[in-house]
Amino acid sequence: MLPEEQLRNIGSSSISQLQGLERSFKLNNMKRLIQGMILFALLNGCTMKEQADLIIINALVYTVDSTFSNCSAIAVRNGVILATGEDDQILNRYRSTNIKDLKGAPLYPGFNDAHCHLFGLGLSLNRVDLRGADSFDEILLRLKKRYDSIQPKYLAGDGWDQNLWESKEFPDNSKLNELFPQIPVVLSRIDFHAVIVNDAAIKALGITPGDSSIPPGEALLIGGKFKGIFLENTADRFKSVLPEPDIKESRGILLAAQQECFRYGLTSLSHAGESLGVINTMESLYKEQLLKIRTDIWLTPNNENLERFTKPYRDERMRISTIKLYVDGALGSRGALMIEPYSDSPSQKGIKVITREEFERLCRWAYEHGFQVATHCIGDAANREALTVYSKYLTPGNNLRWRVEHSQVIAEEDFALFGKYSIVPSVQPTHCTSDMLWADERLGTRLVNAYAYKRLLDQLGWIPSGTDFPIEQVNPIYTFFAAVFRKNLEFVPEGGFQMENALSREEALTSMTLWAAKASFEDGVKGSIEPGKYADFVVLDRDIMTAQEKMIPGTKVLMTFVAGELVYNYNLLP
Asked: Could you tell me if residue 122 is inside a domain?
């Protein structure tokens, strides 16, 4: 401290200088403090980013949200989408040890098959594939090849279609009997609504011509003897001739089918009708975390199922909240129920496989127990029957989402009933491209109201789509292609089939993602790439939203994710 006399000698200007130095010192300290705080915040920000289990960057993401927006990055945690955005937005906010750079590859919501048969797919992988056979002799060659290779105790095959043969007529079973006189042979038509069997299978089932257990029209006869062709419910009875898979075999069947689905980008599906035994096996596989695909399982409405499931069951992977009904058969076997006779068979109108009383009883049960109803309807009379019965339980504007499966041939005056009663038309576009080459022979002028997906879409403003595999091929890219271009895989017909009912690319993609989820009341948790929804998505090797027509059928799945887990990776295949 300065002596008092020296302080008295200091001028006022010197005091001002000292005060200025003091203020400067304080300001400098404040600047350093602020700079330190900023530096700390920046450094600490690197460690304060939110943790993600998975980050996707450099992708062309089709979110299928309300604006059909695109982004390039996704952050995932605990199987759920945390955020979407551009690369820098996601990387600045989230950190992860699992960052996948897709190098511009397109990414879409996981595909959702709105109508298929998972267990049937697994079974078909071990049966003789009869699809595409251009004659009955070709079928016999395929069967002989299988028999010679493994000497089985029975033969089962799926996928034949007599409409691809020159005669286009059902064969008899005489050649089957010559080749395989001792073992049962059961061959399902491509739609699974008809079978051709040999006499050994007929004997094993224990039926004879005139048997009262065979409904009218379900067994074709020649000279009072079975021809070997059986339709609808009687065709189903021949399943009992084949050995029932045990639990171990059933597990393998389901897991093989799941892997086939993942290979084609399917992360969810509606499993159209199943027995309690298979449902129990699926439940066990889910508990063991071996079955990962999300399934909406529809009950076959037998007493066993209806007694076990008196209310809907729902969790993240497995839902049971729908019953599957049938009104008629298939168009290809003339089992579809028509208002007027078939154009190529004036004596036939198809087969009704359920009485009005039974149909109403099951719909009433579903309504009272909170279940959806999904009813198979191909012919215009079958669709009218479902629309009529549904209208007894549904009021305009309801949100029960009862469904008509296939909705294949609709009478002109019946289209509006879908909209009036909020009934969901569930369609399979590859049925259209499989049937279109011969459907006009069956339907004549009614063809204009068949496979009318755009008109059906306009009734509710949305429409779910699927494949009905294993009737059609699993690949949902074929669904997309058929819906948009209305051509088969040979690009026939030129210009497309009844293009007034084609869907746009946006509509087709939405039908197999968000709208398929909506059909099972799951659009709030899946079907689009948005925060809070399941991290289910598929990466393709080309962009189906912009690719040229001829490039689309060859599209490959590169990766499939379920709940953020990579369940299929094309690049890691053997």
From this structure: no
